[in-house]
Structure to design on (210 residues):
């Protein structure tokens, strides 16, 4: 099996932290972050092109990000994502500060991104981690598992992102893809990135963890 590791510091952290993962969550306690009608509860940053169509959150190219008004700490974040063209690019931000880079992208400058790009063979691949100005952390991704879990362009992929303390876990379609440790931002906004791609989202919901 090929296992590709991304290290943001010099420490390599293996999957030993997986034992802390809440693998099977149910609907009890989940709150919906997207009502399917409008962008209530969200803030568009940098004039990115987000809209609601037929009950779906649509990213229509453009550059910027959609930020939750509320901040969250320990949580399980879930959503469905569908790429409407091959190579479409977006991202999911967690525990992210409200400020943005002072450049043409306007993306956040203090947070963590779970890659949401229609790509599985090159890094940063789908469901892997990208730092966005937050303190350094360690992370590891399994591209063999990603290849097995991935559903092709035009089909829905389900994300489950668990943040607990300094640990973060990313599942795609029920398969663990990425673990991250030493996450120093313990609270922040949830966000969705616009990066010139055609991408749709639905069933965005969150469970606060005690």
């Amino acid at each position: 099996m090929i296992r590709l590791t991304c290290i943001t510091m010099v420490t390599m952290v293996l999957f030993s932290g997986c034992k802390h993962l809440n693998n099977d969550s149910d609907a009890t306690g989940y709150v919906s972050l997207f009502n399917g009608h409008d962008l209530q509860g969200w803030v568009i940053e940098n004039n990115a092109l987000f809209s609601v169509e037929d009950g779906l959150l649509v990213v229509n190219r453009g550059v910027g990000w959609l930020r939750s008004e509320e901040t969250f700490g320990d949580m399980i974040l879930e959503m469905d994502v569908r790429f409407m063209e091959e190579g479409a690019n977006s991202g999911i931000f967690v525990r992210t500060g409200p400020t943005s880079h002072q450049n043409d992208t306007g993306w956040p400058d203090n947070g963590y991104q779970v890659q949401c790009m229609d790509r599985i063979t090159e890094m940063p691949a789908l469901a892997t981690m990208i730092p966005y100005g937050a303190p350094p952390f360690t992370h590891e991704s399994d591209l063999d598992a990603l290849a097995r879990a991935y559903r092709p362009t035009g089909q829905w992929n389900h994300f489950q992102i668990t943040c607990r303390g300094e640990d973060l876990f990313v599942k795609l379609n029920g398969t663990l893809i990425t673990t991250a440790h030493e996450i120093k931002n313990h609270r922040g906004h949830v966000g969705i990135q616009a990066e010139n791609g055609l991408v749709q989202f639905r069933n965005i919901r969150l469970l606060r963890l005690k």
